[in-house]
Structures are given as structure tokens and as C-alpha cells.
Amino acid sequence: MLSTHRWPIVAAEKTEKTFDTHALSLKIVLPGAALLASVAVLYGPVFKLMAWQWWTDPNWSHGFLVPAFSCFLLWRGRERWMAAPIRGSRLGLAGAGGAISILILGTLAADLFSTRFSFVLLLASLILYLGGWRMLRAVAFPVSYLLLMIPWPGVIYAQVTLPLQFLASRWAAAALAAVHVPVLREGNLLVLSNYTLEVAQACSGIRSLVSLFTVAVAYAYLAERKMWVRVGLIAMMLPIAIISNAFRIFGTGVLTTQLSPRLAQGFFHEFSGWLIFVTAIGLMLALHRLFRITAKYFEDARA
Fold first, then answer.
1. Pick from 257, 253, 213: which is nearest to 236 by CA?
2. Which residues contact 66 (CB under 8 A, 6 or more apart)?
3. Are 84 and 134 in contact (CB under 8 A)?
4. pLDDT in tens, 7-65
5. Rounded-to-integer distance, Cα 95 and Cα 220, Å
């Protein structure tokens, strides 16, 4: 009697599993593929212009790496979001409608930032509509990280760049005066005995700041679990970027005065930028180590 009733139960379990897989493909895979194809057509011009800006503007060349890293995070955390129950929310439709409205208004107003931002909003809304809140929470960081691929609006970029130019030139001038290098600062100009250094927008440190912030967010998410350490690492990127850039200008001023004005431009100028960026990454790693030691000290003291 026991053996007679075992086979129907096993068959029912197999049928239910097959039905769930089929339902999953009907609820997520097929509509998702159709929606992604529609989004690709709808946002084709937006992606094309943004990729062109990544290619031509050195300040945003890291944009190519952001979507790749987001895809890596999705693959890395696939067990988590695949295990999330599928409970789509109709609020996702409202969010998608808002994203399309932003796209239309941004296109009419020729506002590139809003059209690009609307893509991330649309992506999050579609995940909410198809998968539900738990699935959206499971992929929240990879989706949010895509915001870092969007170049800033020109107004915000100018408002941030100008203070950085003056701050970097002021600190560099103070450092040059401290080592007895004759210098006169006029705004963002450093007048040396044999050359005048201009701290232009490209030398303001904005490029290293944006890149360092993008790297720091990725590194903090992968390498650290404590939230206060993550926030501390990301927050410290601003002073690290400013100090590193001021040191770069200081070094250029010393070499220009002592050796040749040609060192203020060309290969050395570009190479020094990469060298300072690598140094800033090293400072970030050292700072993370210091944060970990501090956290362990407080944990041991509390125990």
C-alpha cells in the first residue's frame, strides 16, 4: 500500500516544479525580454550620446566600466535575487510612466541629464512591476550604481569645478611658499619665476574626484560590510582628491622652477595625473586598513 501511493506523490511534485518554472518564464523572462527590447529602441539615441561623451570627455571615461561592474554585481548576487519571491507591484507601472514622462520632457528641453536619469528610474520601475519589492531590494545597489555613469549637468559641474580650482591653487601656492619657491597667486594662476601655471578645469581635481568616488563606492561595497566604514571611505575621497591634486600642482611648480617649464605640459603632465590617481587609491586602501584596525579595537574594548 505504501509503495502504491508513493509514485503519484513524486509525479505531482515533478509536475508542480515544472509548472513553477514555466510560470516563471511567462511572468518574468518573456515580458522582461520584450520590455528590454522596447527600452533599447526607446533609449537608443540616449545611449549613443552618452557613450560618445564617455569616449570624448576624459572626465567621464570611467562611464564604460560602470554598466560592466553593475552586470558583474548582478551575476555575483544572482542567488539572492533569484531566490526572491515574484510578487509584482503595480506601483512599478506608475514609476515607469513617470520615467517615460521625464524622458519626453527632457528630450523636448534638450536636457541630457534628465533623459539619462529616466533610464535608471525606468529600469528600477520595471523590476518592481515584474518582480516586486523584495526583488528590487535584492538588486538595489547594482541598479543604483548605474547613476554614476551619468555625466553631471553643466551647471552643477561648473559650480563644483570653480571652487576646486581656487582651493587647489591656494594650497599649492602655500606649499610652494613653504619650500621657498617664489610664487604669486592670482586667482587660479600661479606666477613662478620662469613660468605661469594655470589651474584650469582639467587640473581642478574634478576628474580624479569623480573617478575616485566611483572606485570608492565599488570598493567599499565589495570589501567592507560595516556601514560606517563604507560611508567613511566614500566621504574621505573628497579630501584625498583635493590634497592629491594640490600636491600634483605643487610638484609641477617645483620641477618647473628647478628644471624646465616644459615639465608643466605634455607627457609629464599626463603621467603625473595617473601617478597621483594611483597614489590616491593607495591612500584609500591604507585608510580602509586604519578603519578596520579602529573597528577591531572598539570591538575588543567593548568585549
1. 213
2. 145, 146, 148, 149, 214
3. yes
4. 444 444 443 333 344 455 555 566 667 777 777 888 989 999 999 999 998 888 889 99
5. 29
Return the percent helix, strand and coil in the chain, to nearest 5.
80, 5, 15
Pick the more confident residue, 269 or 292.
292
Rounded-to-integer distance, Cα 156 and Cα 243, Å: 22
Q: Is 6 domain-assigned?
A: no
Domain housing 171: 155-302
Sequential DSSP letters for 155-170: HHHHHHHHHHHHHHHH
Alpha-carbon distance of 120 to 108, in angstroms, equals: 19
Provide the domain count of the chain.
2
Rg from Cα positions in the chain: 26
Q: Does the residue 20 lie in any domain?
A: no
266: left (phi over 0), alpha (psi -120 to 50) or beta: left
Residue type, 55: W
DSSP state of 29: I
Task: Tell me if 13 is assigned to some domain.
Answer: no
Q: Do 164 and 204 belong to one domain?
A: yes
Element (H, E) at 197: strand 196-198
Strand order in the sheet with 189-191: 184-186, 189-191, 196-198
Contact 85, 132 (CB under 8 A): yes
Please check whether residues 89 and 207 belong to one and the same domain. no
Instruction: Please check whether residues 227 and 294 belong to one and the same domain.
Output: yes
